[in-house]
Amino acid sequence: MIEFNAEAIYYKTGQPILKDISFTIKQGEIVSLTGASGIGKSTILKIIAGIHKGYDGTLVIPRNSRIAFISQSNCLLPWKTVYNNIVLLKKVEVGQVDKTSAKKLIEDLGLSGLEKQYPLTLSGGQYQRTALGQAFFYEPDIILMDEPFSALDAKTKREIQELFLNLQKQHNITTLFVTHNIDEAEYLGSRIINLEK
Ligand SMILES: Nc1ncnc2c1ncn2[C@@H]1O[C@H](COP(=O)(O)OP(=O)(O)OP(=O)(O)O)[C@@H](O)[C@H]1O
């Protein structure tokens, strides 16, 4: 569950970028966040992730929530293999990983055989599958997604959207999905929050 109410969102310099924002996302719900370029979509994700503190208001999320963040690029560490990227967050947090469930997830993601490859050698689709694996293997309470599939061609995008929806159905994780694409927002989200000035 995420409850966010803000009178104003701002950066250090200048006027608020957004005013009077209020929304609630229920446990397990996928909500799409849309709006014009530069309106503040990524900033809202950063607020929920705890990275951006510039707002007047309240953010309520369950105590000790684990949050995963997936963006268009830069999710993976280039010096770690596909396998080690997927288990990374869990390993850092828990110290050990269940190899059988890692293998199962890698199979579900269609990444079998690529475990020892490095991110720079992956296609865009393989990269985003690995990023999904990293996020879901962590077993987070919340997933924040910032245009993760925007750079993919239409066919690959649809395949990965399906994978995401299947994983989401299995794990029931509260998800806020930023996209500027209305079709994608409708396809993935059970509701859409559209930001306007
Ligand atoms: N670090 C920063 N310092 C100052 N202003 C910033 C900073 N980051 C973003 N902004 C400004 O805040 C506004 C919102 O940016 P944000 O990246 O949240 O928009 P967005 O809706 O995600 O855009 P896009 O769809 O183009 O990715 C923009 O006007 C941007 O210039």
Automatic annotation (TrEMBL):
Record's keyword annotation contains Nucleotide-binding: yes
Record keyword Amino-acid biosynthesis present: no
Record-annotated ABC transporter domain positions: 2-197
Gene Ontology molecular function, alphabetical: ATP binding; ATP hydrolysis activity
Record's keyword terms, sorted: ATP-binding, Nucleotide-binding, Transport
PANTHER family: ABC TRANSPORTER ATP-BINDING PROTEIN, TAURINE IMPORT ATP-BINDING PROTEIN-RELATED
Descriptive protein name: ATP-binding cassette domain-containing protein
